[in-house]
Amino acid sequence: MGRIRQHLTYANVMATLAVFLVLGGGSAVALRGSNTVFTDDIVDGAVKTQDISDTNGVRSVDVRDDTLERGGLQAADLRPDSVGTSEVAAGAVGTDEVASDSLLADDLATSSVGETEIASSAVGSGEVIDGSLGTSELSSTIPAARVTNSADEVTRDHIGESLPFDSERYDTAGMHTATNNSRLTAPVKGIYAVSASVTWSSDPDGTRFVGLKKNDDTFVAAQTQPAIVGNATDQEVSQQVLLQKGDYVEVRVHKVSGNPLAVLKFQESSPEFSMTWLAPGP
User: Fold this and answer.
1) I want to staple 152 with a disulfide (CB 3.0 to 4.6 A). Which of 32, 103, 119, 262 is the partner?
2) CATH code for 144-279?
């Protein structure tokens, strides 16, 4: 026994133990380097999800600090498709964890990106593919209204007036109200297409005027023409105009003839007033 003890060393013992475990079917094998574990040092399936925690098995202190050269876990350390939603804690991935242009459409689950994932004003024309947005992608109905009046409207000579409109052909966003029925009001900021058409009763004298007036102080479109002898006088006016939320437009008319004249109710051409949202404003 004395001779055996003289030849026992730490290296001899560890080598003999490793051979014994391998021959006996055990899972332990000798490591190839100091403080290093390779994939062939671990039996397949030996490391499980419950082992990856702060209290058991592999801990955060066992992974190289990201502040060191080349960082901790990198793409080369991960098998393709090995990280899924179950491996990522809720709220763990922020803008600092995503490289510029690294995410593709295939990386995102359907409906996974909503308002809470997008910073205010982060999506502009550069982030939207031409032709990819239709009305179904808009969160609300496009504001649009078209109104008319159910009867002729008598006007006074030499006096500008705002035409009233008592009937709605359609109004998708509450742009027309009974309280101020001469107005169409913008529910959101944007560029709007605004138009009006009127037919004056027949009179050979004077001129006829129709215009679109914003907030009762600025004409955004106007047209003046002489009366048509022997026939009713038709007029149309239209414009695209930038409106802030709450801005309103009215149809203003004015005539010079010396006689009472009416804006006639005629099918779907007089008096007609419409306003439709086209696009967000600058």
Assistant:
1) 262
2) 2.60.120.40
